[in-house]
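Fold it.
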Amino acid sequence: MNTAFDIKRFFPFLRWPRPTLSSLKNDAWAGLSVGMVLIPQAVAYATLAGMPAATGLYAALIPSLIGVLWGSSALLAVGPAALSSLLVFGSLSSLAVPASEQWVALAIWLSIYSGAIQFLLGAFRLGRLSNLVSQPVIVGFINAAAIIIMMSQLPTLFGVVDLFSTHPVAVVERVMDAPSHMLMTSAFGLGTLLLLALSKHFLPRFPSLLFITILATALSWALDYSAAGGEVVGEIARGLPPLVWPSSISFEHHRELWSAGLVLALISFTEAMSSCRVLARKRRERWDENQELIGQGLAKVASGFSGAFPVSGSFSRSALNLYAGATSAWATVFTLICVLICLLFFTDLLYYVPRSVLAALIIMPVFSLFDFGAFKRLLTISRDDGVIAIVTFIVTIAAMPRLHWGVMAGIVLTMVSYLYRHMQPRIIEVSEHADGTLRDRQRFDLPRLANDMLVVRIDAALNFLTGGALDHFVVEQCSRDPHIKRLLLCVGSVNDIDATGVDTLESLQITLRSMGIDLYVSAIKKQVWDVLEDAGWIQELKHDHIFMTDREAILALRSAPLAD
């Protein structure tokens, strides 16, 4: 049994349920539906990443299979994705020319590095580190990324390469001199956007993306769009992805890719993780974030060795998988059959696809990424989180094309905000409430438990961040009232203590003793007790000054005589 367990641990696809004829039928329909969407999307996202069109199909084949075999979510669609493609472009734009050999080599290494980071995080069960990219950072980055993606595709959509030139008058004059090219290109791009919007509203289950692409391609061929000066995808080699060994690059380039790979690994996994959570909730099943990290990491590495760019979990295609009735990971196998058939027999048909149509295919799904209401919601819930989201948004836009700086700024600001909040713990004077519990004395206007006694509660861990605040609060309160001879410290809310926390209690005990005040402690939790006992503080304080519960402390100290 242990051997079988070990095998399934390293090869999780062995846990797949045995398919039935009915389940295979459902999976086949769902897989074909996703495949028909994936083929044009893969080519579009390759252009978004600055990669040759064929690499989009390469990224949709072997990496997708590896991702589902070693992942934990059966219906997660792994492959080219908008955010990951944009991050690739942003990471490499200052290092090479898009679609050049150097660019492709850098993208391959970026895929391998980001995949290795994800794999190691999963292998060492460090999936929780992905939470460093907090919700405010995600909100700020995704909204900024959506704007950047749309803006980056507008020149292609309208056929004006220098649309955002610093000399707009010259651009307008040039377009007006020969408007046919812009009108023809815009007709394909805007027409595709219109048809996609209409089909999404009226025919949500129809694989409209593929059929609109086929229609546009047929029109491009019939009108001889490329001969008239229109940009098309061009030649895509038939055949399986060439398994490649990454070309050598300079050490400086490797160093540039490490930070970009880390950010890409965190962002792409956060994107995939949101899809996994939705799928798990809809299907009422569990998923393993560490196993998913391993699957995503291996998929990225496989994409690199396939000569392609980093892949990720796609929310839209995963949702389509579920919507089309997929029941298991076998749906992905049928999706890959679609991609494989296209690579082997039909790449010639992609030659005439207008690039403005690809721009529309990229822009349309991006609309669902916009959620400016999330900024208002975050500001309402927490001003700090709202500020983090806004700063992340601004830095991401300002740092374009180095988008990872926006994420890094958001993470750093999150850590600073977290430390700042925890450096100001809630420390209050409490007293006995009518219900028998200890409550905030000032809030409920309560008399002291005894005239000579101060009762203090700290609602935080006792560590290097909070120790100084506790010491300052207690000493200040005791100095104000010379009648205080006893101090009860309620630590029931303290879940953790470190060496600084122990030192705080030791120095506080010495200070109070010099002021003629006895220290009592109540409700010490086991994990805190163990640390204090190992440090010898429990023996120093003595057991008659320690109470297991606040109630026990109230009953014992309220009627106790004053200490000499």
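The chain has 24 helices and eight strands.
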